[in-house]
Write a structure and sequence with these properties.
The complex is a heterodimer of chains A (928) and B (378). Chain A is α+β, with helices and mostly antiparallel strands. Chain A contains 22 helices and 40 strands. Chain B is of the alpha/beta class. In chain B, the strands form 3 sheets. Chain B has an 8-stranded mixed β-sheet, sandwiched between helices. In chain B, strands 11-12-13 form a 3-stranded antiparallel β-sheet. Classes of the chains: A alpha+beta (928), B alpha/beta (378). Chain B: InterPro entries: Hen1 (IPR026610), SAM-dependent_MTases_sf (IPR029063).
């Protein structure tokens, strides 16, 4: 219908390169924990209202633009893997990639042989270096393979003398290949060349990235320095060579580790060693005397700088002497312990002794990274310094490019290999996706600009609700007051919101949670609740353990509530408590399983403390001590009131209900009806059967698929199996593979029709830079679900390795037509940037959420397997829809909800359960 | 100097431990330690190894390297740049490292005013014409307080393996002890220097007459510092090309000094505030008063602060106190802390440095902290 790349006159100031397609949808992001990606500055709230972005002012399109525009394409069977037909507005998207123009015709690869053989690599280097007049100054040599930008005569024979014994060595240089200048083989040494460029610009290498300590921002109150910097790497993409460059920051403490130790000691001399270990071990330190970073693995309390160690020469020196002699540094404190760093085992050239331990002197080392945050204000201050708006980000990238161009040495260094950087970052084209319609029981709506449908779901009747009949509140005796208060508030608030038919809670004091017999939950009650100290992780774990394993009551977790200092007193308080209770109630009422309110989602929305706590908190604040609210509330959902057999006749109740159902059912209905945009009011029958929002999503989307194929039966459904699978690599403890599956029997057929696997791979430790792989597979007739499960699993694991290797972190910003070179934030996009990735697989970038601050980092999706022959269009829209489905967040999330669930489950299993949870829980979101 | 060496008389192979080049550098380092020069130049710096060692000598404020070959300097010159760690705790002394490309046969004003000039294994690489000009440039023009010249001792070559004429293919000549000493004495006499001969790389026992493997002459200027007028007469045409220049962060730089002072002031003030509040809380608990009542004056007891303040005389104006939610810590109190004191020197300077960076009371005499804000942090 639309051309692949509709050009809108006046919208783009830069010529489009190729036909990259992006979509855009809109969504709210969950507040994400601070990090490189999420933490981007809030200088100036990015607001589309004030910034003429991509649309002509005044003609902001409504979403979906028209019902026809959002209408699926007439079912011409899409070829798999083809690039989708654009739907929605196109936008320009700036990426954190810079095109590298290769000006040389070729790079020549030679093989170098030494005869007699020279073992020592450095000697090989030196010998070849003596023949600069033959090879030229520009070489890349690894000991046997030599790359040159020039063509030598077929074979070159050279002679040199071995310094050590004067023996004559013959060097033969033979050409093996003529390479494209953008060849994969060249990239490693291009990266070396680029590192040299960064050094010429006087950027300091810390770890793997480059920073500018001269431009440091100093946060005096916390004795921190924030160094701006760049992470750079040259990569090959479909469109040629690209420099991937990102503007980043490094937080370094201005205090030496010794000073940090001193301050820890001042706070509490008794627990000094424990506290030190806690704070220091695991952190990365830089030293005063060299340019290395070390990971602190341990602290040696028995060693001091007066101890001796052996130099490579075999000489024994004390640390004090060594640093005085080698670096002219006098160690002042002679009784400090030493930090231990254990280098990772590396392939070292034979004969060299591998260091098994590096001892560092605390006085001479500095900690990097944001210190353990007891302190939310510090966190806020530091993030504020680090956050960058898109235009700032853009400016810093452009600044780097300009510095390289302006510096003759730097650009000359690149030109030696015929590389020239494009003066601007790479711009590509994206698309704004049509918005998804959200239906409630009696109404449907298009999410507003802010992408919060919180208001709608609280005001309108949900599609289905599950009543809470009987609750057991379990609490230790000392928390009796709190519990009573909670019960009262809950009842009150339910009343005000149209009470569930059988609401009620019974307070039952209990001795101690540790002795708490799991049978107490759910033996009679529908649900159980227990206040828990939110800081007491072990206890919380015990609970989780009990719930999930010993007695598989649908899991539950503390509603994490912090005292809100600003809400101290005032009429708000009451309402806050009520809403908190209501939230809990909602959680409980979602009797599919208790829930763990996701930390990301509820934060401040949740209410405040009952008065006594508030007073206590106030008192604590007065004292200047940190005292979090000691109680949390755990709800364990019990047996749903409707017996499994009765599922088809749920009694939807007014009031709040799991929003996921709200959200997904309408979509389901909408798709089933085949007329997007039409209000569909009666999806209840299906919804009754959907026990898991993720499944519901699957169901909906699966139902959509046949229709899209023009196949029969938009209403036909199959047996769906959802596989959440994630190997929890990040959790140190265990590597459990978890498969949470939900089997859903729908209507008529029992044939397993479609399996959709969502899998997230995590780059180690950086949860925020998660890349998501979406695997979609349809198996036409597959009665043995187990078989397809295994095949899928094995395939995804295989593939994920490949995915991890290719790292792409595009950064999105749009170019405003009015203000040139001023990229700005936008709220959500689909972007399919085929030319930026290796083209073997279908992939695309999606920005489904909206960041309130800083730059958005879209998620990259790679379609690993697509036997269902889904078109890219479908894949992308499907993914976007899945991002709407996080069950208690009224907005879109960064990754598809099933992926997020899988994370949570894997985390819980890896950190706490260490076993597969009870079978009864398989169809519940007990891990939330 | 280390006299360790291993020797196998029979094969004639002599191995120095540590290697001879390291012994030469160590010799220079020892010399620097002895004379504490502020400005040091290394002629023929090659891959800047010596400069890298010297940058850690805390007496040196200006380091310069000169070599005829740019590419050899460029290879490792970035090791002379400041380390990231240098920015975290700027040193007290300033340090500038500069590399020049040029010949020792040419005069350039950038080489004037040095305290120590080292020519390690340099002269044997000079062509005859350059060697003739060399004394005039180094001793006559640069005229540093000390000049160190080292060169191979050809008499020792017999003990070294290999039958090469010279130790390095680029050597134009290698002198024996007598040749070097006569050249040195003549030069010293002409330019009014005194010279002492020494060396590194001891000969094997029984062959002491061979002399050191590397012979070194240490020249010390006899006349006092060249007067300004004398220097201004000298040609000022720059012929050297600056290849590299790195300025190290130091507390002499206003920017870093300011940061250091502000950081120290805030740190000190926070410490005082904390102990003040702790004490106050304890007091408060004792009486178990109505929590609304918060206005009081607190006299810091001597023993509380004595560990930090030392012999500080507590004057009336130096007492930190709490008023409402605000803690006031007089600047004079902070100034009395030795660290702050050493950084700023004078009270006026302290005030000047922290202006605008630290919240001060209306009259500018005390640092203010809002306890409310602080507690939220926690």
């Amino acid at each position: 219908m639309l051309p692949a790349c509709p050009q809108r006159a006046g919208t783009h100031l830069y010529p489009h390169r190729g036909h990259r397609i992006l979509w855009r949808g809109r969504g709210d992001a969950l507040p994400v924990p601070p990090g490189r990606d999420a933490a981007v500055p809030s200088r100036g709230k990015p607001s589309i209202a004030t910034t003429p972005v991509l649309r002509p002012p005044g003609s902001r399109p409504s979403w979906p633009p028209t019902s026809t525009a959002a209408h699926p394409q007439p079912a011409s069977k899409p070829t798999p893997g083809t690039k989708p037909v654009a739907k929605g507005t196109t936008v320009s998207v700036g990426l954190n990639s810079v095109k590298i123009h290769c000006q040389n015709e070729a790079v020549y690869q030679y093989h170098v042989t030494f005869s007699p053989e020279v073992e020592c690599r450095s000697m090989r280097f030196a010998m070849l270096k003596e023949h600069r007049e033959v090879t030229g100054d520009v070489t890349a040599f690894d000991g046997s393979i030599l790359f040159l930008p020039i063509l030598l005569p077929q074979t070159v024979r050279l002679k040199t003398q071995r310094r050590s014994d004067g023996e004559e060595v013959a060097i033969t240089i033979q050409m093996t290949k003529v390479l494209e200048p953008s060849s994969d083989l060249c990239i490693p040494f291009y990266n070396v060349v680029f590192r040299r460029v960064m050094r010429i610009l006087d950027l300091k290498l810390v770890g793997r990235n480059f920073f500018e300590p001269t431009q440091a921002t100093i946060v005096q109150h916390y004795r921190l320095q924030i160094w701006p910097g760049y992470s750079v790497s040259i990569r090959k993409k479909d469109g040629g060579l690209f420099l991937l460059v990102n503007s980043i920051h490094k937080v370094v403490r201005s205090d030496s580790v010794l000073n940090v130790m001193h301050s820890i000691y001042k706070q509490d001399p008794n627990s000094f060693q424990d506290e030190c270990t806690k704070q220091l071990v695991g952190s990365v330190v830089i030293t005063r005397y060299n340019n290395r970073t070390y990971h602190v693995d341990d602290i040696d309390w028995n060693k001091t700088p007066r101890d001796r160690f052996t130099l490579a020469s075999g000489e024994e020196v004390t640390f004090v002497d060594y640093y005085r002699k080698a670096y002219g540094i006098t160690i002042k404190e002679l009784d400090q312990p030493l930090l231990i760093h254990r280098p990772r085992e590396k392939q070292t050239p034979a004969g060299r002794r591998q260091l098994d331990m590096v001892l560092l002197v605390p006085e001479l080392t500095f900690m990097t990274g944001i210190p353990e945050m007891k302190n939310s204000r510090m966190l806020k201050d530091v993030t504020r310094e680090m956050l960058q708006s898109p235009s700032q980000h853009y400016a810093s990238l452009i600044n780097l490019l300009r510095r390289i161009t302006d510096n003759a040495d730097a650009s000359g260094e690149l030109m030696r290999w015929g590389l020239r950087l494009d003066p601007n970052i790479h711009w590509t084209q994206g698309r704004v996706l049509p918005m998804e319609r959200i239906n409630l029981r009696y109404s449907s709506f298009i999410p507003n600009e802010e992408l919060s449908w919180n208001k709608e779901i609280t005001q309108e009747a949900p599609i289905s609700a599950i009543s809470m009949n009987y609750w057991v509140l379990v609490y230790p005796k000392r928390l009796q007051d709190v519990s009573r208060e909670l019960t009262a508030t809950m009842e009150r608030s339910c009343g005000s919101r149209g009470p569930p038919r059988h609401s009620g809670a019974e307070g039952r004091p209990h001795r101690d949670l540790h002795q708490d017999h799991p049978g107490h939950f759910g033996e009679r009650g529908q649900g159980a609740a227990a206040p828990v100290h939110h800081l007491r992780q072990p206890r919380r774990s015990v609970r989780g353990h009990q719930e999930a394993l010993q007695h598989p009551v649908p899991g539950a977790l503390p509603g994490h509530q912090r005292p809100d200092p600003h809400g101290a007193g005032g009429e708000d308080e009451e309402r806050g408590a009520e809403s908190a209770a209501a939230d809990q109630l909602q959680a409980g009422r979602r009797a599919l399983g208790g829930r763990y309110p996701p930390e990301t989602a509820d934060g401040h929305r949740h209410g405040r403390l009952p008065r006594p706590q508030q007073r206590a908190a106030l008192r604590h604040r007065l004292r200047g001590q940190h005292e979090p609210h000691p109680h949390q509330v755990v709800f364990a959902g019990g047996v749903p009131d409707a017996a499994p057999g009765d599922r088809r006749q749920p009694a939807p109740l007014p009031g709040r209900c799991p929003p996921a159902l709200l959200r997904d059912e309408p979509l389901l209905a909408q798709e089933a009806g085949g007329v997007p945009g039409r209000r569909v009011r009666q999806p209840a029958r299906h919804c009754a059967q959907v026990r898991d929002p993720a499944d519901a999503a699957m169901l909906r989307d699966l139902r959509e698929l046949p229709a899209a194929h023009g196949g029969a039966g938009g209403t036909e459904a199959g047996q769906h199996q959802l596989l959440h699978r994630r190997v929890s690599k990040t959790t140190l403890v265990c590597k459990t593979t978890l498969v949470s599956k939900t089997t859903l029997v729908c209507k008529t057929t029992l044939v397993c029709k479609t399996i959709l696997v969502c899998k997230t791979t995590l780059v180690c430790k950086t949860i925020l830079v998660s890349k998501t792989i979406l695997v979609c597979k349809t198996i036409l007739v597959c009665k043995t679900t187990l078989v397809c499960k295994t095949t899928l699993v094995s395939k995804t694991t295989l593939v994920s390795k490949t995915i991890l290797v290719s790292k792409t972190k595009p950064w999105c910003a749009t170019r405003s037509p009015g203000v040139q070179q001023n990229p700005r934030e936008w709220e959500g996009c689909w972007c399919a940037t085929e030319r930026l990735v290796l083209g073997r697989r279908q992939d695309f970038f999606l920005l489904a959420h909206r960041s309130r601050q800083g730059c958005s980092v879209p998620t990259r999706y790679v379609c690993v397997l697509n036997t269902a022959q889904l078109s890219a269009e479908h894949l992308q829209r499907l993914t976007f829809k899945l991002c709407h489905l996080y069950w208690n967040w009224p907005g879109t999330v960064r990754v598809p909800a099933p992926c997020k669930y899988a994370h949570k489950l894997a985390f819980l299993a890896g950190q706490v359960l260490h076993h597969e949870p009870g079978a009864q829980l398989r169809d519940r979101l007990f891990f939330l | 100097m280390d006299k360790n060496f291993q020797e196998e008389q029979f094969t004639g192979i002599i191995k120095f431990t540590p290697p001879l080049y390291k012994q030469r550098y160590q010799f220079i380092k020892d010399l620097v330690g002895k004379y504490k020069p502020k400005k040091v130049a290394d002629l023929g710096c090659a891959d800047c190894t010596l400069l890298q060692m010297l940058k850690f000598c805390s007496c040196i404020e200006v380091l310069a390297g000169l070599d005829i070959c740019t590419s050899v300097m460029k290879e490792n010159m970035h090791r002379l740049s400041p380390l990231p760690g240098d920015y975290l705790q700027p040193a007290e002394r300033p340090l500038t490292v500069t590399l020049h490309q040029g010949s020792v046969a040419h005069k350039d004003p950038c080489m004037l005013g040095f305290d120590l000039v080292t020519c390690i294994e340099l002269i044997e690489h000079l062509e005859q014409s350059e060697l003739v000009k060399f004394p005039e440039v180094v001793f006559g023009f640069m005229a540093p307080r000390i000049v160190v010249i080292s060169t191979p001792n050809s008499e020792f070559n017999a003990l070294l393996p290999g039958k090469a004429l010279f130790r390095h293919p680029d050597h134009k000549f290698e002198w024996n002890q007598a040749q070097f000493q006569s050249w040195a004495l003549e030069t010293a006499r002409r330019y009014d220097y005194s010279v002492e001969f020494t060396g590194v790389g001891h000969p094997p026992t029984g062959m002491e007459n061979v002399g050191f493997c590397t012979q070194i002459g240490v020249f010390v200027r006899k006349y006092p510092q060249t007067s300004e007028s004398a220097q201004s007469e000298k040609p000022t045409e720059a012929v050297y090309k600056t290849v590299f220049r790195a300025v190290y962060p130091s507390l002499k730089d206003e920017k870093y000094l300011k940061n250091a002072v502000v950081s120290e002031v805030i740190f000190t003030a926070q410490n005082i505030k904390r102990s003040l509040l702790d004490h106050l809380m304890a007091e408060h608990e004792e009486y178990n008063n109505d929590p609304v009542e918060r206005k009081f004056q607190f006299q810091p007891s001597m023993n509380r602060f004595s560990e930090d303040l030392g012999k500080l005389v507590v004057e009336k104006s130096m007492e930190p106190f709490v008023h409402g939610n605000v803690v006031y810590i007089p600047l004079t109190t902070i100034f009395s802390f030795p660290k702050v004191n050493r950084l700023c020197g004078t009270f006026e300077k302290l005030c000047k440095l922290i202006a605008g960076k630290v919240t001060l009371s209306s009259d500018g005499s005390a640092v203010m902290f809002n306890t409310e804000l602080e507690n939220e942090e926690n």
